[in-house]
Design goal:
Structural class: alpha+beta
Number of helices: 2
Strand order of the largest sheet: 1-2-3
Radius of gyration: 12 Å
Largest sheet: 3 strands, antiparallel
Distance between the termini: 35 Å
Number of domains: 1
Mean pLDDT: 77
Low-confidence stretches: 1-8
Order of helices and strands: EEEHH
Length: 74
């Protein structure tokens, strides 16, 4: 995955590149860093259809993450 967030707002803000020791562990070169530090690894299909296709708002993990941010602002 060579896209960056500078390529527009198409990538999910939870998407984190897997570097170092994690780079070869996951089936895709990224993972999701969700609320409370939880890590979720998307499948290749989810990465293409949700995470980098401007449909990340449909992802249940993203919705939980966004809701947790809303509670912090209250």
């Amino acid at each position: 995955m060579n896209q960056s967030r500078q390529d527009g707002e198409m990538n999910c803000p939870c998407l984190t590149p897997a570097v170092g020791r994690r780079a070869g562990v996951f089936p895709v070169p990224v993972y999701c860093r969700l609320a409370h530090g939880r890590v979720r690894v998307p499948t290749r299909e989810q990465l293409g259809s949700l995470c980098t296709a401007d449909r990340y708002h449909d992802c249940p993990g993203y919705r939980r993450w966004a809701a947790s941010l809303a509670w912090k602002d209250v």
